[in-house]
Amino acid sequence: MTGIEACVFAIVSLMAIVGALGVVFCRNPYHSALWMVFSFVGIAGLFALLQAYFLTALQIIVYAGAIVVMIAFVMMTIDFRKVRGLSKFVPQWLWGLIISFGILIDLFILTSKMKIDVSQAGKNLAIAGSNTKALGMELFTSYLFPFEMVAVILLVALIGVVVLTKRGIK
Q1: What is the extent of the structural domain holding 69?
Q2: Whole-prediction pTM
C-alpha cells in the first residue's frame, strides 16, 4: 500500500466511522439519515480502494440512494410530536450496553487469536476476472420478468407512500 492509498484509506474509513457515530448519537432523525449517507459513501470508498467497482456502484445506488429515500418516507409518515412526548428513559439500555461490551470483548479475543495472511489476498481475483458482465447477462436474460416485477412493485409502494403521506396535508 502506497502512501497515497494509505491516506485515502484513512479518509474514507474515518468517513464511515464518523458517519456511523453520527447516526447513533444524533437526536434529529433527519440528521441521522444524512449521517447514514455520509457513512455509506465512506463504505463505497473502501470498496473502491479494493477495486470492487461494482460493489461501489451498488453501495451508492442501493444504500445511499434507495435505502435512505425509504427511511425518509418512513420519517414523513411518523408524527414526531407524539414520539417526543414518550418517555426519554428506556430502562433496557443497561442490558444493551452490557451485551454490546461482551460482544466487543469477544471480538477482540477472537481477532487476537486469529492468524490471517493477507499477503496473498486478491491474487485469485485478478486471475478469475470480473463476473459483473455475467451477472448482468443473467439478470437481464433469464430473470428479466422477475426483475421488472420487482421494479413495478417498488414503484407501486412508492406511489402508495406518497398518497398516504399527502392525505393528512391540507
Answers
A1: 1-86
A2: 0.59
